[in-house]
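Quick question: what would this complex look like in 3D?
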Amino acid sequence: MRSDVRELGHEILGTLTGWERLADESSRESVWDEYLGAADWLEFRSRFITDFVAENAVVARDAGKSLGAFLYTPALSRLVGQDYSALQEHLAVISPMIYRFEGWESVLATEICALVGRVATANKSEEARLVRAVLEFCGLAAESTATSRKELARGFSPGAVASETARARTILDDTTRLIPIVWIDDEALAETVAGGKAAGADGINFFTAGGSDRDWAPTAAGASRAAFR
Amino acid sequence: MELPLLALFDQSPEDPAARADGLFEMGYDTVVIPMDRDLARVSKSAGLNVWICTATFLVPPGARDVLARDVYGVPRMWFRSGSPGLRSLRDNHLETVRTALRGPRSTASISTGSASPPRLPASKLFLPVSATRRGKKPGN
């Protein structure tokens, strides 16, 4: 299993041509067929996480409480063993962390930049092909016009929140509430929140890192009331 | 079951009671907070639902032997978390959730990683990190 993951990392995720194979739907499946152990590795991780969340759900149920989880957004969740479909059975609320700017891990731009950053490119043309291939594979090509690492680091449009919410909504049934968490410090907050609602969010959660972030609370509340009430 | 419609993930406000009252007046129905009984109490008193947020697989300071390993077997800290496969870390977290839910103030628990983690993107945990160090050329 491990050797397949290593080889996938070097030969596919470490090369431009590999990413282009993954980005193209007609060749994507053949990649996974060539590295069966990598798919097993992802499945192994997913099983561990799902089993553990199930244990937490029992604790919550015994206390007469509900359990929710902040999960990686669907574009990235498979990499970290978070299977929305399997997890929803145990969770009352799923909050995809749809942070569209660059920051720390779990933030869309940071994660995508990390994937792109692993691959050596010879010139701007190759860099552009690589950025577009990674975005395509992650299902985010429509939400970014970036053709370079520098542009990618500027983050995604508010549409990314809508599209990732819609992806989660497609997976989840009505028994689990979908409440995306978004960064509160967002100049396009009204558009971000309205997009999430239109895509099927049941509510909205705002992340604040403290400090001046809190000054955004009234703006966020106003944007949310307009969208949800 | 009280479920959030409009929630705020808030951390250690300077004046928790005033903050909670203000959020309720703005229209928030839920706060997601760290495990803090006083914060939970004032939030509940203000009329807010309280969701307790706990970090998952938290690594005790200095305990490197509980870290997850990448495909090369190298231990790696990620989101201040250790290996999800270690029974001791799983049991520690389950006990944390039990404690968080013990009081009448909380409605639910939301598990997550740390809010201020070291910078190690998800892809770095899954992917062989030495690929770029080898400097492989595209197409090789």
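Answer marked as accepted. Chain B touches chain A through 65 residues (CB under 8 Å).
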